[in-house]
Specification:
Blueprint: H1 2-33
């Protein structure tokens, strides 16, 4: 099931990028507040 593996991999990448985006936004807000 190649396509199924690809779908799972893409979902994992999306979750990772979401976390990185949130951390980036928090860092930006932190910079603005200090």
């Amino acid at each position: 099931d190649g396509p199924a593996y690809v779908r799972v991999f893409v979902n994992i990448l999306r979750d990772i990028s979401k976390v990185e985006t949130v951390e980036y936004i928090i860092a930006l807000i932190d910079e603005m507040l200090t």
